[in-house]
Design brief:
The chain is built from 6 helices and no strands. By secondary structure, it is mainly α. The chain has one domain. Helix 1 packs parallel to helix 3, helix 2 packs across helix 4 and helix 4 runs antiparallel to helix 5. The longest helix has about 35 residues. The N and C termini lie close together (about 5 Å).
Length: about 190
């Protein structure tokens, strides 16, 4: 399992909150970076032990979205479909939790990380894009084929962004482990 002290978890939590604040939309960012929201939820699931981190991060995302839309209910994205983001982000969080339980301090963990990220992202995309397609009122004559066409368009884009941030986080994790000079057993099971 991923072994992080409480102090390290606090630092990771602060970094994840700041990362979402800096990348979620262009309203806060100085540089227009791709949104790290999906990665934030996956990494929070993998690295943060407290369960209350999920609702805290969701409230941050909601607040930022509401602030960006001017607290207007007639925004393009602020519809009843917005609430499908709860299970969408929950899928990423759960994927991170699963990965944390399967992780071992060995390069072979990448064989677990990659499909876990991909499947978590697909379930997230089904809820977020599918929810918007079916519930937003923005699409007429919805069909299952139409929904899967949208997913085929958006999934690769969101997956690549998620993979970029998770890959960078994995590199930082490995670098910090190497710099800390802590011997790591191949079957380390601490959290």
């Amino acid at each position: 399992m991923l072994a992080l002290s409480k102090r390290s978890q606090l630092a990771v939590g602060v970094v994840l909150v700041l990362l979402m604040a800096m990348t979620r939309g262009s309203h806060f960012s100085v540089v227009n970076l791709p949104s790290a929201s999906w990665a934030v939820f996956f990494l929070a699931g993998a690295l943060l032990r407290p369960r209350w981190a999920f609702p805290l991060l969701f409230l941050q995302a909601l607040f930022m979205d509401l602030q960006a839309t001017g607290w207007s209910s007639d925004s393009h994205c602020m519809t009843v479909a917005y609430w499908t983001l709860v299970p969408a982000y929950g899928a990423l969080w759960f994927g991170g939790r699963l990965y944390a339980s399967w992780h071992r301090e060995h390069v072979s963990s990448l064989l677990i990380l990659v499909p876990t990220v991909a499947v978590s992202a697909l379930v997230c995309q089904l809820f977020s894009s599918g929810g918007f397609y079916w519930l937003s009122g923005r699409h007429s004559a919805q069909t299952v084929t139409g929904m899967f066409e949208r997913i085929a368009i958006y999934y690769p884009q969101y997956l690549s962004t998620l993979a970029l941030y998770v890959g960078l986080a994995a590199l930082v994790y490995v670098a910090l482990r190497l710099l800390s000079s802590q011997p790591v057993a191949s079957d380390d099971r601490r959290i």
